[in-house]
Every structure is written in C-alpha cells, then in structure tokens.
Amino acid sequence: MENNNPILAFFPVIPALCRRRRNKISYVLLFFVLAIPFQKFPETLALHSIITLDPFFIEVLRALDEVIILLALMLAGVIGVIRGKIFRVYCQPVYWWLAGLVGMSIISVIVNDVPIKQGVLGTYDLLKIFLIVLLFSHMKYEGRDFKWLIRGVVMVSVIFSLVGVAGELVALFAGVGINIFVADNQRFGLYRVISLAGHGSWNYLGMFSVLAFFLVTANREISLQMKALILFVVSLLIILTLSRQAWLAFIVVLLCLYWKNRIVWSFVLFMTLALMLVILGYGEEFTAHFGKDISLNEAEYYRLFAFYQSIDMFLMSPLIGVGPGSFGGVVSVMFESKHYDAWPESFQEYIYGIRSIDQFWPQLLAEVGVLGMLFFLMIIAILMREIKKSEVYFKALGESQLSEYGRVLRYYMLAIIIMGALSGINSPLVTIPYFSLVGIYISFAWSLRGVSRVGKNRLVKVIDSSGDY
C-alpha cells in the first residue's frame, strides 16, 4: 500500500503500536532496540562534567544492553512455558552450529584450565549477537512490527545525523561541543562526529548510519523527495564520522545491491580515486611509521601490536585456542588475563583503558582456534541463507517491499564482517538494531510458511492482517 506521508512512513506512532501489541515483553523490546543507540551519551556527559552520575550508575549503563537481553530471554522463556502465547517455536538449522560452538568453547575452557566464571562469560561474549537473533526470532512479531522497527531505526539515524552535522559546524566555527558531539580527533581538517552515540563511537555510528541508509533506499512507501532528503542527511553523517570501515562497508554493500548500475560504478570509481589521493598525500607519514619499533607509540601501533599477539596466541593452540575470555575481549580485561603480563607497559595500559584489542576476528581465532572460527562463520552463513530464503519467499508472494528489505539485511552481514576485522563486533549501537531486524524478518517468513501449509485463504488473511501491505 502506497504511503506518501513522510511522518507516517518513517516516524513510529506510539499509540498505534500500543494498541497492536498483545504482550508487554515484545512491546518493551521494540522500544529497547530504539533506545540502546543512546546508551553511551549520558556517560559522555558525565565524563565532561555536564551532568553528575554515580560510578555505579555508569557501570549499569554500560551493561544495560546485556542485562536486558538476558532478562528478556529468561522472562520470555518462563512465560512461554507457562502460557505458551508469546513464543513462536520452530526448528532452526543454526541450532546445531550454535551447539557446536558452545561445545567447542567448553572443551577449550577445560583444556586450557580457564576459570569457570571467566570461561562462561567469555563464551557468552562470543554468542551475544546470536542470542539477539534467537530472542527476536522466537517472539511472535508480525510484518507491521518489522516495518515499525525499520522506521524507528531510520528516525534514530536522522536524529543522529541532524545533531551530528550541527555539532560539526558549531565545533568548527565556534569551538563548542568538542568531545561531546564531535571527538577531538581531527582528520582532513574535520572533527570526527559522534553525535548522541557517546564517546569513542564514531566507527559504530558510521556503521549504524550505513544500515539506515540502505534501509531507506529499499523503502518504496515514501515520496522520492523525502527519500532523497533523508539519504542526503544520513550520508553526510557517514562522511563526517571519518570512519574508513564505514566507508568501506558502504561501498561493499552498495556494490552488492546495485552492481549493475553504471551510476554506482561511477561513484565507486570516484571514491577509489579520492582514497588513492589521500593515501598518496600521507605517503611520507606511512613510510616513516613503517620502520619504527611498534612498542614506542601505542596510540599509533596498538592494533598492529595486538594483531601480532593474537597470532602468537593462535599458534599456541591452533585448533581450540587459548580459551574463551582469555584474550582480546572485555572479559579478558575484567579477569586480568595472564596473556597480557609480557606486554610492554604502555600497551597494557592501553588495553585496560579501551577494554579490547579492537579487532574481533583475531580475538576469535586466538580464543577458540580454527574449529571455533569455523562454527562461528557457519552460523553467519546459515543466517544469510535463511534471510535469502525469506527474501525469495516474500518475492514469490508478491511482497516486493519485504523482499527488498531482505536483500539489504543479507548484504549488510558483509558490513558486520568488515566491522569485526577493524574493530569489535559486539557494539550495541550496531548489533542490536541489525540482529533484531534479522530475527524478526526470519521469524515472520517462517510463520507464513507454516500457515501456508494450512491453506492459501488462511495465508492471505494473515498477510492482510499484519498491516502496511
């Protein structure tokens, strides 16, 4: 159904959603997904004495996403067993590979004599993104919930973009808002925008904006003028984050979605030439750094040093790794892993400051080895396959809008892979909105396929009653 009203098309109508929801847990979870991108902003304000927060409250804010996900899983499980009305249970092929990853992690914990608590938390840290998918895929969400959440994600992205662009202008011309809305970390004469995402979030803000950008491109229910305006504002934010991983992810997803389009190829060629000019312009700096001892400057060489260390950890135990929670992630920092004892003091201070090695795939390889990496990648591959199957199914039903959203979600998984190579993979700002959408999308397609076995008339009724079709 066409909808040319931009307000109705992109901004969630809270009263309407309240009338639709049948249970409180699924209702609260949707708002949680839209609130979590702002998780770190209060901490940023407290860090610069704009507001006063108790240190305990700051720690609660940092763990809010994990606490809510785990609490929702437990509550949904208990209520599902008692009432059987909020869970949509079906057999997923991903279960076998998840079980394999858990089993592999247990073996690694036992063999490497990792403390049980550390091993459990380390395993949870590896499984976190998949737990989000499982939670949202088993709730009884419908097509209207999926589209509502997409509108909400775009709304949040537009807010981030407007505040970010304004923050950049104010910082450049008035010197105000630095380290609050923009980071005191300049590239090419510009500040790196963090908007309302919180300190240190420029890369993840860029990745989140890439997701929102392509969700907008897939939308066919708003006017061309409104779509162009939203895309322009969001693209400005992607640029102003000055995040190379976000730029790379943008180009990769763009090519996958529109590789036959000559305009897209012209744009990619232009961006490639621009990046080459930037690299050539900084060539002397790169050459000078290359010959230095990486232990001299942790700010410049931390990732390279940490990458070499992860390779050393991997070679110690190539098949099963050194144990979940033992190297590279926040859990290893919490338990002061012995593997950091031989590090230079400056690098030790750095990892305890940022709480990770800031690159997920080397961490995964070091902690669970080749076998654990295989299980993890197979889970991702199966999720992409399930999205593809759902996408094809919706297309066969004539639901081209839902099918197009599926293409975006499927190819954005490549952006997640890129993010894991250049930073952490468990950022709530990116993973909770994305993997919740993946879970709902797969779940709704599964439910329709189940109904279709009952009869065609029943299937038509379910689609019509789900709204916005």
Q: Fraction of residues in helices?
A: over 70%
Query: Which strand order do you get reading across the main beta sheet?
Result: 1-2
Instruction: Report the order of strands and helices.
Output: HHHHHHHHHEEHHHHHHHHHHHH
Average pLDDT reading: 81
Give the overall silhouette. Answer: globular
Please tell me how large the radius of gyration is: 23 Å
How large a portion of the residues is in β-strands, by DSSP E? under 5%
Instruction: Give the biggest beta sheet.
Output: 2 strands, antiparallel
Main structural class: mainly alpha
Oligomerization status of the protein chains: single chain
Describe it.
The longest helix is centred in the last third of the chain and has 37 residues, at about 360-395. The chain is globular. A hairpin with a 2-residue loop joins strand 1 (about 180-185) and strand 2 (about 190-195). It has 21 helices and 2 strands. The relative contact order is 0.14. The termini are close together. Helix 9 (about 145-175) runs antiparallel to helix 20 and helix 10 packs antiparallel against helix 11 (about 225-240). With about 475 residues, the chain is mostly helical. A two-stranded antiparallel ribbon has the order 1-2.
